[in-house]
Design a protein that fits this description.
With about 350 residues, the protein is of the alpha/beta class. It has two domains: about 180 residues, Periplasmic binding protein-like II (D-Maltodextrin-Binding Protein, domain 2, 3-Layer(aba) Sandwich); about 150 residues, Periplasmic binding protein-like II (D-Maltodextrin-Binding Protein, domain 2, 3-Layer(aba) Sandwich), CATH 3.40.190. Helices cover about 35% and strands about 15% of the residues. The protein contains 14 helices and eleven strands. Helix 2 links the parallel strand 1 and strand 2.
């Protein structure tokens, strides 16, 4: 079972960690990037493209592909920034919209937006610095059977979740350690405003909302709708998650926050040509069609047909919350710091 952001590992703990090779040679060297006949790509730990497509890329491009995965999307950004003066990779995939502006502002990307970008991705470009590859929506998921068995109405909105009868049923992720946790925090700021979001979180925490360190613990250990053994029938996850449960779970559309994943050429890369070829490859029809089943995100190309179970159970929300990347870049550290202080004071 492949869910996006399978391991939401603490950014602070892994920021200085080494890169672990997922394919190819595990020694990256200390010079800028890979050899000219290979291309090295930094990816998040949920990157999974079918091997036959990778084989085709290598045959058609002439570049051997090596990927390194240090953790989730937040860790990827930290690795890029720490190594910007001596890059060890040529390209990056998986930087999401809540972190990408920080990386752009730090100058880690060379200007490149793929000419193969479909029209449906045009609204998500960032001044030519990166290329959007896929998207997803972080939403509260609900275990339908649990609420039916309890004879309770399901919540529908952020305000509902803060009510005492629902707050104690919800598990979220630490925004300082988890990509979906950060997305949900941003969603509360966008929906409730900077003057009110901390009061909202106070209501959640006082009401018994559990904070897990990452997505996998929250979804597979705490959520009652995944393996069926958790104690919480509400969890922050993805709009795509109900595709795996054949509709036994659902997502609350009013809580959905749009997440975009980008690929970019690293400034100072040893093989910028190979990096560009990799980004073009990620926009190819076959890779875009593989993204839902392999990485549980929606392809950026909206003309690609989704798997049948997605169309039935996990259609993308029509009006997700969409945050301004520049505003998030300016304020995210403050939001996380203030949230962390509130959480620590709550004693949970």
């Amino acid at each position: 079972m492949k869910q996006q952001k399978i391991a939401a590992t603490a950014v602070a703990a892994l920021a200085l960690g080494g890169l672990a090779a997922c394919s190819g040679d595990d020694s990256q060297g200390g010079d800028a990037g890979s050899a000219p006949d290979s291309v090295t790509v930094l990816v998040h730990d949920s990157f999974n493209v079918p091997q036959d497509l990778i084989d085709r890329f290598e045959e058609e491009s002439g570049f051997e592909l090596t990927t390194t995965a240090p953790g989730d999307a937040g860790v990827v950004v930290n690795q890029l920034i720490l190594a910007k003066d001596n890059p060890t990779v040529d390209a990056v995939y998986g930087v999401e919209n809540f972190s990408v502006q920080k990386a752009v502002d730090e100058g880690v990307f060379a200007n490149y937006t793929s000419g193969d970008l479909p029209a449906s991705g045009a609204d998500y470009t960032l001044d030519g610095a990166v290329t959007p590859i896929d998207l997803g929506d972080v939403c509260v998921n609900v275990d339908h059977a649990w609420f039916e068995e309890q004879g309770m109405d399901e919540p529908a909105t952020f305000d509902d979740l803060a009510k005492p009868e629902y707050a104690e049923l919800l598990v979220v992720q630490d925004p300082a350690a988890s990509s979906p946790g950060l997305a949900f925090l941003v969603g509360t700021v966008e929906a409730l405003g900077e003057d009110s979001y901390l009061d909202y979180w106070q209501s959640l925490l006082d009401g018994g909302t559990k904070v897990a360190s990452g997505w996998s613990d929250a979804y597979y250990s705490d959520f009652s709708g995944a393996e069926g053994e958790g104690d919480y029938p509400l969890v922050v996850s993805y709009a795509s998650s109900p595709a795996e449960s054949a509709g036994a779970t659902g997502s609350l559309d009013d809580t959905c926050v749009r997440q975009i994943e980008y690929a970019g050429v690293v400034e100072g890369a040893a093989n910028p040509e190979g990096a560009q070829a990799f980004i073009d490859f990620m926009l190819s029809d076959d890779v875009q069609a593989a993204i839902p089943g392999e990485m549980y995100m929606y392809p950026i190309n909206d003309q690609v047909e989704l798997p049948e179970e997605w169309a039935e159970y996990a259609a993308a929300p029509e009006n997700p919350i969409e945050a301004d990347t520049a505003v998030v870049a300016e304020n995210r550290d403050t939001w996380i710091k203030d949230w962390t202080a509130l959480y620590e004071e709550s004693g949970n």
